[in-house]
Design a protein that fits this description.
By secondary structure, the protein is an all-alpha fold. About 35% of the residues lie in helices and about 0% in strands. It has 5 helices and no strands. The protein is globular and about 80 Å long. The termini are far apart.
Length: about 150
């Protein structure tokens, strides 16, 4: 037999239906974390990157080997904090590589990887404040080198 429902239950059910409908009708925003828009990371310079110099930077000033295993056999110590970079040029496009070098915190705010082309870094010695770790051309050179790792 049919039982009448109370106005309280009916209005609660209607509120849930309207909330679900409003959420479904609202435009979807990209997720806050892990969102990547390839168009955001155009080359930083007009000069193409030099992969030979990029390899030198990766093995030296860039400190890439501190955290990553790379196909640089003449260097004995390679880190294991970050992912292995052999084959990274097959997995990521240059804009993705550029963003991961320039400011990886855009993709993951909790990453231990530093932002190599960001000038407003936290907890930096006074003489380094307002400076990036790598220049724009050095970032492009490292991107060019990593792009060769197929």
């Amino acid at each position: 037999m049919f039982k009448p429902i109370s106005w309280g239950i009916a209005s609660a059910a209607l509120a849930v239906i309207l909330a679900v409908h409003a959420q479904a009708a609202s435009p979807k925003k990209p997720p806050e974390r892990g969102y990547f828009d390839v168009s955001r990371m155009a080359p930083l310079t007009d000069q193409p990157g030099d992969p030979v110099n990029g390899r030198v930077i990766a093995a030296g000033k860039g400190l890439c080997l501190s955290c990553h295993v790379m196909p640089i056999p003449e260097q004995a110590d390679h880190g294991d904090v970050g992912p292995e970079l052999a084959g990274v040029g097959s997995r990521l496009q240059p804009p993705e590589l550029r963003l991961r070098i320039a400011d990886p915190k855009v993709l993951n705010p909790d990453t231990p990887m530093p932002s190599f082309y960001k000038k407003d870094l936290n907890r930096v010695a006074k003489k380094w404040q307002g400076q990036s770790i790598l220049t724009a051309q050095e970032v492009e050179d490292v991107v060019a080198y990593l792009g060769t790792l197929k």
